[in-house]
Amino acid sequence: MEKMPKWADVVLIPVISLLLAGILSGLVILAIGEDPIKALWIMFDGAFGSKYNWGYTLYYATNFIFTGLAVAVAFHARMFNIGGEGQAALGGLGVALVCIFIPWPHWSLAILGAIVGSALFGAAWALIPAYLQAKRGSHIVITTIMFNFIASALLNYLLIGALKPIGMMEPATGKFPAATHLPSFHEMLAPLGISFSKGAPANISFLIAIAACVFVWALIWKTRLGYQIRQFGESESAARYAGTSPTKIILVSMTLSGALAGMMALNNVMGEAERLVMNATEGAGFIGIAVALMGRSHPVGVFLAAILFGALYQGGAILSQDTNIPVQLVLVIQALVIMLTGALDNMVRAPLEKMFLAFRRAPKPAPKPTPAE
Amino acid sequence: MTDTPAIELVGISKAFGPVQANKDISIRVMHGTIHGIIGENGAGKSTLMSILYGFYKADAGEIFINGQKTQIPDSQAAISAGIGMVFQHFKLVENFTVLENVVLGAEDGWRLGPSLSKARRQLKQLADDYDLNVDPDARIEDIGVGMQQRVEILKALYRDANILILDEPTGVLTPAEADQLFRILERLKEEGKTIILITHKLREIMEITDTVSVMRRGQMTATVKTSETSPPELAELMVGRKVLLRVDKKPAAPGKSVLEVKDLRVVDVKGVQRLRGVSFEVRAGEILGIAGVAGNGQSELLEVLGGYEKGTGTILLNGEPLDLTGAASDGQTRRARGIAHVPEDRQHEGLIMNFTAWENVALGYHNDPKYQTNALFMNNAALRADTEAKMKRFDVRPPDPSLAAKNFSGGNQQKIVLAREIERNPDLLLIGQPTRGVDIGAIEFIHQQIVALRDQGKAILLVSVELDEIMSLSDRIAVMFDGRIMGERLPAETNAGELGLLMAGVAGEAA
Amino acid sequence: MTDILTLLDATLRLSTPLLLACLAGLFSERAGIFDIGLEGKMLVAAFLSAAFAAMTGNVWIGLLAGIGGSLILSAIHGLASITFRGNQLISGVAINFLASGITVLMAQAWFQQGGRTPSLTGNGRFDAITLPFANALAGVPVIGPIYSEVISGQTILVYVALAFVPLSWWVLFQTRFGLRLRAVGENPAAVDTAGVSVVGLRFAAVAICGVLCGVAGAYLSTGLQAGFVKEMTAGRGYIALAALIFAKWRPWYALYACLLFGFLQAFALRPDLIERWLHFKVQTQLLDVMPYILTIIILAGFVGKAIPPRAGGEPYVKER
Predict the structure, then answer these.
(1) Which tens digits make up the pLDDT trace of A1-12?
(2) pLDDT tens across C205-228, in order?
(3) How far is CA C108 from CA A23, A33, A195, C121, in A?
(4) pTM of the full predicted structure?
(5) Which residue from A145, B464, B472, C295 puts its CA 20 to 30 A from A122's CA?
(6) What ipTM does this complex have?
(7) Which stretches of chain B sit within 8 Å of chain C by CB?
(8) For B7-239, which CATH superfamily applies?
(9) How many other C-beta atoms can be found within 10 angstroms of the C-beta atom of residue B228?
(10) CATH architecture of the domain formed by A65-308
(11) Are B27 and B61 in contact (CB under 8 A)?
């Protein structure tokens, strides 16, 4: 007998966790002497109040879909990939190299090249920790943390060195060629007669992110590989018994994870900045953890959670412009969401399960279960 | 004084979530006796004793120690009440020394040095008093299970336990080691200690206890004097009806050789030799039973044959060699060659508890063409339908393919595994501990299925630590000890005594 | 010569927060609670120490406030990973974000200086202490300058950190508490059945971790620097974690690992010295990431195997 219905697990618990996070954040805002209701309104308006704001919300959401899916895929294999940040950074490097050094005739070809470049670089950066985990038993959490720092140092080194155009002061690559410019929402929607904000950075990579959601859904639940990934994630011993190679699953799932994280660069590097700057990922790799946890590692959940976090980021930015509340408020909310949906899951879950059990017992007594030792 | 029981439990109940493990249990154990508690796996014996030891908290009921009503909210309280417990799975810190393990939790003061010296002296005394010699400076991970069990007993005695609970203490011991343990228990009884022995083995109850309580499905069904009962009566009390102690089967009609194992060797990751040159043969239409105390290489044997452990030597299946180390030594390849495997550990290998029944039916067979829609996608609908059909044929209850494996009882879980493996029409079936944790009704069903498969002319390799099961199912019996086959016997020409000696590594002419 | 001395002096100063955080992690992980939230605890402690020192002008009150803040985060980590048996790694990640966010929020609310505290002066900082005979011994060759220039003249927290190394060893290996603490990290069921509270022990370990992280953070903002700036821990919590693995969860090895990593940090600050001594340019980025690379090599088992406490990261569940 299940302790509670599936919908409670999938919908109710994340919603309650989110509400709790919201209430606690409100208390934080109150503690620093601001009005939480007003703040919430400003954030809401900042995220959804205009097409321009929507454009930013969706732009951030695109980043978080990629990194959220990255964490989610790894979660299915019971790998905790904290290295999304580094993998996304390397993905940026891949995009930059592809855009700068290959003379693309048109963006539609450039984006294909960029997908390959970003996925390859992100995957490669995840592959080393994956290999060490699979073959040497090095804990993936520790190694991926270390690889984030190494990635940051590597990009730092390249951006003040080899990749910086001569004569430029700022540590960044030069602007990508015009042919690699990705259509923004404004450019995409204009032919359809729909006007969208010109200045908002949301671009065609949002559609690629949605495609990635569909891809991950089909992969995990409809294919043999996905079945094997889940098998391994649930029980390594059963996977070995079934003839699934742990090494293969660790490598494949982490490679996929890294590739997805890397593909975030399509949005922030190619779509928005159109050049590679220092610290381009801005913590999106870590937000992927919150997004995956909240989205219960399901692509639909990841998509919704990513939109929510996109709104939080955009709303938080507006909030910091309009009030005395720094944008780091978003970090606090993010922390609370990770804590409540991840580590404190049992705190929310246990009382709910009790409630459902009591509720179910009340009308008719539960069938007599088999006793166990 | 002698009229006051050492322990009296009144109306103990305990539920784990929806599962009622103990229901209104009352029991009295007199001073200076050995009291047995017998019951099937899952009858609630361990739960009851864990409550007495303060490891679990009872939902209802009272505990009296020496006539005094006593609250035992935690193990600390049990220890102060003079209760010691040796768990089935030892509670030792592996990389600590014996001395450190004994002292842990019973130190004399906040400094460690004086506690350790005192314990060293006292351990010497206890060793002399009870014949319990253990090297105090040995690390737990370096000593054998028999020794580890002694450490557990010493831990209890060091804490001045007057009441000692032992949970399935012989499961990991050879018959000789078990005899030694029983001598120690007799000695403890002579010294006035009260002992509670939990077991599911009738032989042990008859051999050593003074009184015995029988548990069934979380309830206490009877308490009797051992001298006034008999094994058949106890068995009937345990399972609630007359038990068929023998399986009805025709004599085997063995055909051609299906499995031939020659000089098989396995070395584990720590470099320990688990199989030291094992050779045997299983023919079509026969059941070869492998007897032995757990941990003597049977698991590794199944794992090598099942394709998820590497080994050296030769294995011929229908005359063709199997790859033992290379790329083709995995479960997938083995299945393709016609080997089906019901693994020993149902919960960690045979099934994935959080997967639905239909996802579990694909375990190991996800590449089966009939479960595919096309080259890319699996056909989950076909898989579900196939599972439902299998569940009906094997009488799995409830026959709901979308229910998670964890929600089935042990017997129904095992039926799902059996259905998956047997219905593949394999040439060879590997089956480990087929009835562990399975209720008695399902045991009969499972035994019948195994015999039926044999009668279809399949080769069956049966591994079980239950000697009775081995003796009633097998057509030939091989006994394993320390990674070797100690000998082969025919069930009709041997007895438990002889097999027990082989299991202990004695009587050594190898067959 | 002076270059060497300043380098060693910087090594000692930079090693101190690493060492304190590393020992903090050692207590927690030896008890079976993984803690990747060292960074966050240090950060909160750094902020509160600087804030209270700035407001009261008394660095000791600052230190206490820092420890208090770190302890609150420890309590949250304990609640999540011990009481509610949550995932310790996820809890640690959350704590790091919480610290990053909340320090800036509070700094802005209290001081309106863009997420920093006012600069600390006078009694708001820990002063350098001149050890006895420092001047007298200065003339002795080799040892003299090292004693007077490197070892003497540090703030009291440096000496506290160094004293914690033998103290930690003694507590872990010579006391009842240490025996139990190590046992609970290896096999909590053994501790539980021996009648000792697993929850109590683990909370105690997590609390010690909080205190030590508190001191580490206080040292950053009131000893090493004069005030708090956002993200001032700059990954030190993770380097301490790396040092802990490098040290294989042992106090004396922790000292050596932290000195090594501190030395690399000190070296990275003086690229000129490297060029002068080694006659080639070493990228500072390479020195920055050396601790991480070394730790990965250790983790990969190429140089000795680091085996963590066996029950580490697993919540203790008694009932099924």
Answers:
(1) 466 788 888 888
(2) 999 999 999 999 999 999 999 999
(3) 21, 11, 39, 20
(4) 0.89
(5) C295
(6) 0.91
(7) 16, 53-56, 74-79, 85, 87, 91-96, 100-101, 103-107, 109-113, 115, 155
(8) P-loop containing nucleotide triphosphate hydrolases (3.40.50.300)
(9) 9
(10) Orthogonal Bundle (1.10)
(11) no
